[in-house]
Each structure stands twice: as structure tokens, then as C-alpha cells.
Amino acid sequence: MMEQVMQHEVAVRLSFFFGVLALVALWEVLAPRRALTVSKALRWVSNLGIVVLNSVVLRLVFPTAAVGMAALAVENGWGLFNNLALPGWVAIALSVALLDLTIYMQHVMVHAVPLLWRLHRMHHADMDYDVTTGARFHPLEILLSMVIKFAAIAVIGPPVFAVLVFEVLLNATAMFNHANAGLPAGLDRWLRWLVVTPDMHRVHHSVVPREANSNFGFNLPWWDRLFGTYRAQPEAGHQGMTIGIDRFRQPRDQRLDQMLIQPFIGQTSAYPITSDGPSGEGK
Ligand SMILES: [Zn+2]
Ligand SMILES: [Zn+2]
Questions:
Q1: Which ligand is in closest contact with the Cα of 126?
Q2: Most buried of 100, 204, 233, 235 (most Cβ within 10 A)?
Q3: Is residue 176 scored above 50 in pLDDT?
Q4: If you measure from the C-alpha of residue 137 to the centroid of ligand 2, how many angstroms do you get, rounded to a whole number?
Q5: CA of 124 to the centre of ligand 2 (A)
Q6: How far is the CA of 133 from the centre of ligand 1 (A)?
């Protein structure tokens, strides 16, 4: 039974990944929001290369992944929802929301803790913003993320199906909201109450620290509104804003080998993103 769920999980996740990737990539070609500044071929080889690498590393280190952890929690009666008799759909909806809140808090944390910012800044070092940016995370951050997810699952005790839904959903929305594309302003404003849109998350990739320290949500937009980290638009506009961080702005910084050593470059002294941002910007 367990084995079947796992095989199913990989197939479901892979088909969604390639399906959404193809759709968003097509959208970007048909209606690009910004002109790209770095060779797309270089960035895509690097960003998709890191996806392959992360998949291999994850399978090796945590073969059962988050779905396996959820099954273990069910078997052992760990966590909130494994000890409450709620209707299935309620437990699934609440579990997805709580897992998303965990990811939001983790994202705030990797910006706030200098050592963790070293792992996360590779995501921000992309000088362009497109569908592949959404999957560009350092393998060490991916591993940290999985450990945090394991802990959250042990506490929340979500239905196994909820974890599968969450993983697929997060993957899909991350690619959607990193799109180098935009929606009509009215639709974007409305959709922002349900899901993080490309224009909303793009603000988070601004080189300006106070903009990068806003819009931490990857999936549900509510946490940013609730915790006061929401920022509607970049001050320079979506065409005028600069994407990336100050520390890594050479074309070679977009090479896979360089990206992998980025966590180990430079000193960790000042407050994370301000140390990479323009001087005097403050928080
Ligand atoms: Zn970030
Ligand atoms: Zn991002």
C-alpha cells in the first residue's frame, strides 16, 4: 500500500512539474513581462540542472520524502489531526493551510538568520525572474526545508493525501508566481486574495532590501497580509525594478558550479539582505 502511494506520488509530482513548466514557459514567450538580461540558455541549464540535482539529493537523503513522513505519523498517531475526529476534507484543507504557514515562517527565517540567508540567497541571485527561478534553490536549503517539513508533519499530523496535495500545489504555484508574465491589473488584484501572483512575488526579488523583505508567501497570500509583510508593487515598477542581489551580478554567477558555492562566499557579518543591498537602505 505504502509502496503504491510512493510510486504514485513521484508520477503525480513529475507530470505536474513538467505540465506546469511547459504552460508557464509558453505564457512567458507569448506575453513576457520584462526583457531578460542574462542568457536564457545559461540560466535554464543552471536552474533546471539544480532541479535534477535536488531531486537526486532528496531521494538519496530522504527516500520517503514528506508523504512517507505523513504515513509514518498516521501509523503512530502523531500530531494534531491524527488525534482529532474531523471530517476528511476539513483536515485536508486545514493541513494544507498550516503547512503553507510553516513554509511562510521558514521563508521569513531564512531571510532573518545570516547563516540561513547564505543558503537562500542563491534563489535571489538569479538576475532574471522566470518559471525556472521558482525551482532554483540550493540543495542545502532543500534539505533544511525537508527537515522542517518533517517536524511540521509530526506536529500537524496531516492526512497523507493533504501532504501530496500540498507538495503538488506548492510546486505548481511556485512556478506560476515566478512567471515572467503578468495578468491584467484587475484580475491580478482579485486573484491576490486567493494565490500569490507573479506581480506579487516579483516584488520579493527586488534588489532593494525593504522590497526583498516583503511578500514571503509562495502559495497562499494571506500570511503576508496577516503578519504585515505585504507590499503591493515595486517602487520602480515591474519594468524598471532591478532583480537580484548586489553580491552576485556577474554572468558567471549564473553558472551551476558557481551557484553551488555561493553559500560559502564572503563573510557573514551584517543583517542578511541589507549586507547585499544598497548601503543605507535599512530595513
Ligand atoms: Zn526569499
Ligand atoms: Zn522567489
A1: 2
A2: 204
A3: yes
A4: 9
A5: 7
A6: 11
Provide the percentage of residues in the chain whose pLDDT is more than 90.
86
For the record, the C-alpha cell of 102 comes out as: 510553516
From CA 263, how far away is CA 50, in angstroms rounded?
Answer: 15
Residue recorded with cell 552576485: 248
Say if CB 207 and CB 234 are below 8 A apart: no
Centre a 10 Å sphere on the Cβ of residue 267 and count the other Cβ atoms it contains. 7
Express each pLDDT in 187-210 by its tens digit: 999 999 999 999 999 999 999 999
What's the rounded Cα separation, in Å, for the pair 191 and 235? 21
What distance in angstroms lies between residue 87's CA and the mean position of ligand 2's atoms?
Answer: 34
Distance from the alpha carbon of residue 120 to the mean position of ligand 1, in angstroms:
7
Ligand nearest to the CA of 108: 1
Between the CA of 141 and the centroid of ligand 1 the distance, in Å, is 11
Return the C-alpha cell found at 147. 527537515
CA of 62 to the centre of ligand 2 (A): 24
What is the three-state SS of the chain? CHHHHHHHHHHHHHHHHHHHHHHHHHHHHHCCCCCCCCCHHHHHHHHHHHHHHHHHHHHHHCCCHHHHHHHHHHHHCCCCCCCCCCCHHHHHHHHHHHHHHHHHHHHHHHHHCHHHHHHHHHHHCCCCCCCCHHHCCCHHHHHHHHHHHHHHHHHHCCCHHHHHHHHHHHHHHHHHHCCCCCCCHHHHHHHCCCCCCHHHHHHHHECCHHHHCCCCCCCCCHHHHHCCCCCCCCCCHHHHCCECCCCCCCHHHHCHHHHHHHHHCCCCCCCHHHHHCCCCCCC
- The C-alpha cell at 214 is 516583503
State the distance from the centre of ligand 1 to the C-alpha of 78, rounded, in angstroms.
31
* pLDDT for residue 4: 64
Distance 72 CA to ligand 1 centre (A): 31
